[in-house]
Amino acid sequence: MNTRYRILAFILGGVVLLVCVIGYAYLRAESNPNALWVVVQSCVSQAQAGHLMPGSCVAVDKNNRVAILRSIEGREQFLLVPTVRVTGIEDPYVLKPTAPNYWALAWMAALRYLPADVSQDRTRIGLAINSAYGRSQNQLHIHISCIKRSTADILRSDQRQIGQTWSAPSIALGEHMYRVMRISGATLGAVNPFTLAAKIPGASGHMGSHTLVLVGVVSEDGQPGFYLLDDVAHQEGDDYDRGHGEALLDEDCSPH
């Protein structure tokens, strides 16, 4: 075998090995809370080398230090993941003025990477972050997918009662009660859902208990905006709420 073929074989072997490592990390995600961190660091290495291999790595934003990954769950779900260590919703970094607006970046990713019939209808888009008790990974990740039709229908029916300040936990979605507020505008701009959640009485010292879901909305008068939903992990008797807002998403983006 000449030198050229040896080099090609070595490169191919390295690619296969890296794909296997990434796949193995994903498969062990439930038992290894750092698996997602391993995957995102691999994406960074690929970006630095100038080429993202087909697979989980979709994009790396060097300026905002985030990566977009294709999730292994559902047909149409992506994850926004910081490329620096940020544990989750409870990490003080997410509230710092110098931190990127991860939600605004996730929304832009939704418009870019979700199927066209979804990205062109903001009312079908849903983003979610789970509480520290409702996640398997200790690296912040925002789920990017579709909102369940049942959730969208309930929010639509209650839209006249949803204002621009937090409600009480009064909207039943799935098996749990959510509080909700409306955000005006086609984009989030400088509005940071983490900051809004921290303003809920008692939340700032217990952010790890909270789960947030962001849903695109168009009001009755045609104005674009968002609904921001909040639930808190808790246990009352036999009822255990893990703060798993991801449950409101339809990760297959089933046709409406």
Global morphology: globular
Distance between the termini: 56 Å
Q: What is the second-level CATH architecture? A: 2-Layer Sandwich
- Give the low-pLDDT segments: 5-29
The total of beta strands comes to 12
CATH topology: HIT family, subunit A
Q: How many domains, as an integer?
A: 1
Task: Provide the descriptors you would attach to this structure in a database record.
256 residues; alpha+beta; HIT family, subunit A; ten-stranded antiparallel β-sheet; 12 strands; globular
Task: Give structural notes.
The chain contains six helices and twelve strands. It has helices at 3-27, 35-48, 102-113, 116-119, 149-157, 193-198; strands at residues 57-61, 66-70, 78-82, 125-129, 142-147, 171-173, 176-184, 210-218, 224-232, 234-236, 239-241, 249-250. It is globular and about 50 Å long. It has a single domain (3-250), classed as 2-Layer Sandwich (HIT family, subunit A). A hairpin with a 7-residue loop joins strand 2 (66-70) and strand 3. It is of the alpha+beta class and 256 residues long. Strands 1, 2, 3, 4, 5, 6, 7, 8, 9 and 12 form a ten-stranded antiparallel β-sheet that branches. The model is unreliable at 5-29 (pLDDT under 50). Helix 1 (3-27) packs antiparallel against helix 2. 27% of the residues lie in helices and 25% in strands.
